[in-house]
Amino acid sequence: MIRTGxxxxxxxxxxxxxxxxxxxxxxxxxxxxxxxELTCPLATDDSxxxxxxxxxxxxxxxxxxxxxxxxxxxxxxxxxxxxxxxxQRVLLRPPPPRxxxxxxxxxxxxxxxxxxxxxGDLYEAMATQYGVRVVIGDVRGHGLGALGAVAAVxxxxxxxxxxxxxxxxxxxxxxxxxxxxxxxxxxxEHPANRADEPxxxxxxxxxxxxxxxxxxxxxxxxLNCGHPWPHRxxxxxxxxxxxxxxxxxxxxxxxxxxxxxxxxRLLPGEALCLHTDGAEDARDRSGRFFRLQEVxxxxxxxxxxxxxxxxxxxxxxxxxxxxxHLADDVALMVLRNDRVRVPAQPGAxxxxxxxx
Length: 356
Known about the structure:
This protein is α+β, with helices and mostly antiparallel strands. The protein has helices spanning 4-17, 21-39, 48-91, 147-163, 167-189, 277-281, 292-299, 307-322, and strands at 98-99, 102-109, 121-128, 131-139, 207-214, 219-225, 231-233, 237-239, 261-265, 271-275, 330-337.
């Protein structure tokens, strides 16, 4: 027996929310057909015309109902994509094209599923009194669950680079911000929230981080916590390997001493390419790894070297290599040194210090 009151309540809620508006008419039509079959005397007629009409009514109702469900799911997917894209743009804001004499370009390819286009990679470059400071990192996993860690690390970086004279101080600020985020998540996800600290707050969560400091004279200093080293682009691609990296942030505390390591000297016209491990770990259908260094070497042959063109080339070759199916997020950042030393002008009077 069909209860008309319950169906009326369902339809009223659907109309009120707006989400079920597309479902209301096909559902009402289907209900009408069922009521016709159960209550109308003519429905017991065995004539072929009534049977065909009844079958057609059922089919029309089912087709419209399936179409409405599919359209609703598509709308929900578009909404999720819009929210994810907005969150991504707020967190990973595009860097300015020029920062203190450096030309900068950055981009990301996300391995999102079902519309979750938010990745777990992060990057930022900022001009400070100590030089241009750069961060690139990779949060374990991707999607909406990685947003909190990305926000914590980036927010701390954007403040610490102006306050900390040493790169090691910046890294310690990032570690403290990540630990606070993990503790807050652990409290929120436990059924019984406690005032004391959890025993092991999300022990499997970690973030790889690479910090760079590019000084006005082109010298580059780095601190690396489990992240791939960058490539130096100068007529080719040369990976920088100044030493073994530290463990990723999260599982282990940082050592007491954090001296920044000298990496290279970036001359005018040369560039650095920073990337996450999703670029080197990408595979094709036969299991072959993506040859990032070869692609960068070909892209670096163009003169003048364009950071945006390098990123576009790497992304195009990555998608071609993987068939458009990335297993992990890929973030890329290229910085080209455009600082030019002005030679001494003829006839210029050299500065003379006054005698005391």
